[in-house]
Amino acid sequence: MDSIRTEVLDFYTNLGTKVVDESHDQDTTDLHKCVAYIRDFAPNLDKSNLCILVAAALGGRFDHEAANINVLYRFSTTRIILLSDDCLIYLLPRTHRHEIHIQSSVEGPHCGLIPIGMASVGTTTTGLQWDLSKYIDLKLFW
What we know:
4 helices; 2 domains; 3 strands; single chain; 26% helix; Rossmann fold
């Protein structure tokens, strides 16, 4: 948060919030720095059940949204959920079997599966309007 306004920084500092200044690192995003800090500098944290919820992660500049999605991929062994007013995004590592239970009253009526980095092979879905049955080479599905 190298562009944080002084009054915002003072507000959180006065609440006792620990502030870590990583502004010297301009090679990674704020979210990347935050996730790395949580994973690497919290030795007593049980990382096997770690889930990081990132509020207001979407709905702004596209380059920031794409960078946040890249963080999901870079930290694919950590469950990270990007949340906005109208959607949530998380990575489904190909090394696992996944069950997604949509609560349409909370998450909305849409569920999109988008392969990132490579095609998805052997994808099967149930309960969607257009289910996939061992779909080979899923490139894009809305």
